[in-house]
Every structure is written in structure tokens, then in C-alpha cells.
# Entry
Amino acid sequence: MNAFQKLMEFARRKVVPENPCRGEMKYKEDYLLDHKVLQLIMNLHDWAFLGCERHVVVGNEFDAVAIAETFGGKPRFIAIELKENDVVKVLRQAMIRSMYVHVAYAVLSSLDISNYTLPHIEKAVRSGIGIILYDPETMTKPKLIAGARVNKHPTLLNIFEDVLRKQYKLI
# Structure
């Protein structure tokens, strides 16, 4: 495959399919994750989408885990935590799960910025957590509040990869 063909194949795989995630939608907030949110993340990081699984358990339950790859073929793991409106809780969850993955995102249907939530939002952004605002019932596309910073050497990545390979057959 020549360089142009490789580039075209990578560009084709950057498009996220309409129903991208495996696994059942167990909770009300699960509707917040759809192909538009994943497409925003893929475009932001310039990654190709490989797959997504809902409700992955690796110590804690991740609302969703997506797998992508760089143009150079390196796998990238994305934790996605979902909440309708509990800003503090979703940011805490995303920060905890960020030790396992390359990037972590918190997706909320509403963002309450108050004297109570603002320090949590600032801490999450400083820690590299991405924040997306999206309600598919009222918004046509997700809004990026803060992009996630890529963690090239997640502390617990080896454990995470092993579980994804054995239990979820994602790799």
C-alpha cells in the first residue's frame, strides 16, 4: 500500500458509524454518547475510530471505552464518563479513570457553572480531562468545552489492555 492509499484508508476509518458502541444502554445518561460525540473526539485528536464498548468494568465501571489509532498505527484508549447534570461526580470519575487510558472525557447534558462547581471544572481541565456538553434531544451537535490532553504513558494501561483483550475482545 503506497502512502496515498494509506492516508485514504486512515481518513475513511476516521468516520464513526451511526451506532458505534457495543453493549446495552443500561442507564438514562447512556443516550449522551452517540456517533457525534465520538466523531468530535476522533477529529480533535486526528485518530481513526476502531470500536467502542459500553459499561466496561476494570476495577471501576467505565460508562464507555472507545479505541482509536493514530496515523502511525498506535492504539489509543479513551474513557468516556456520562452524566446528565452532576458535574462534580462526572469529573471525579473521569479523573480516576484517566490513569488507565490515553484520554478521558466527561460528557454532560448541562453544565452548571457555580462557585461550587468551578474549582472542580478548573482542576479537571488542568488534569487533562476533556469536557463535552451535549444533549441529543436539544442540540444538533456536541460542544467542546475543553479538549483532553493525551497521556502517552497511562499508569495502569497494561492492566486495562489485558482486560479489554480477554473480557471484551476489543483488541
